[in-house]
Amino acid sequence: QVQVVESGGGLVQYGGSLKLSCVVSGNFFTINTMEWYRQAPGKARELVGVSTRDSTTIHGDSAWARFNITRDEYKNTMYLQMNSLKPEDTAVYLCHANGWGPRFFDEWGQGTQVTVSS
To answer: Which residue numbers in the chain have pLDDT < 50?
Structure first.
């Protein structure tokens, strides 16, 4: 079984920074893709960024200049560095990962709350 666990969320003031972590653990061999999503109350789930073995990409006009994704393949961990945070960044941030082990896996974490005050 593969588990995906996010951490690092919390309360931050306008303009502050947070670094989120997503750790994949369990019985697997290869992670193909890791993704960050976020979902604010009353809004649709939004893709924040994507990490593959070869690249990382930030999506969204308001986030691409402020957010950055890195990945530590040895630790099976993906990070989301968020700078210059705004109230509109407030959301539950979710990690999604897929890959291969004994079987193909496709798993979601439970999310970590990010709240940005004005």
So the answer is: none
